[in-house]
Amino acid sequence: MKKIKKDKLEYYIFENISVRHCFSTRLGGVSEGVHASLNLGFREDKRENVLKNYDIICSAIGVEKENTFWTKQVHEDNIVVAHKDDRGKGLLRERTVPEGYDAIITNEKDIVLTGFSADCVLVFMHDPVQNAVAICHSGWRSTVKQIVPKVLNKMKKEFGCESRNIHCAISPAIGKECFQVGEEVSDEFIKVMPFALEYIVPDAENGEKRYIDLHGVIERQLRENGVTSIDNSRLCTMCHPEEFFSHRIMGNERGSMAGLISL
Ligand SMILES: [Zn+2]
After folding, report:
1. What pLDDT score was predicted for residue 171?
2. Residue 132 CA to ligand 1 centre (angstroms)
């Protein structure tokens, strides 16, 4: 992962992904207060500021905000295949799908797949052989529901992709020293992924709490499904509140980062 700085704007790119993409930070936008400054979700922010923020980030990476496609993220494992006529949904017009989709895939050009995060992991995928991309929102619930392996399977089924050709990147998200959960959460991980035991440590100060390495679990899901090209950021959003919106720190009074990717 590499940080790009253009004046006040700062965002990250992944060097194993060769199409237009970024993971934003909160730096370089025009929003104010709890949304300062590069808020890319509407939330309670002024619409004109969010649109301006999209102009800033989209022009930096060479895409059009009119081509973005958002879905409602609901911490499930639903995957939608995006088409050209989905462009603009979310930012400029209604999201027509009533269901939530935490992952979007496409093999069509100039659709900017958009995912949101403020502690959750976003996984970026690009297959340069079959020309396909994906963005996948994998918070803990979707991780337990195996959304990442399901996206790989969907890319195989829809576009003929093969895991060994798919380049993946794991965004900044809440890190293993900060992602404290109750035992009922860590038990869900172990129940569906016995290997998760290797990524869970007890809280030394509170016997009922555990820490989960979400970056590690998701990388393992990718590797177990045949992916070898993985850029795992391992950067913690909660440890860097000056750079990232963190749900754990700010609650609902916050903006959102976004991951964008487009063929
Ligand atoms: Zn941290």
Report:
1. 98
2. 32
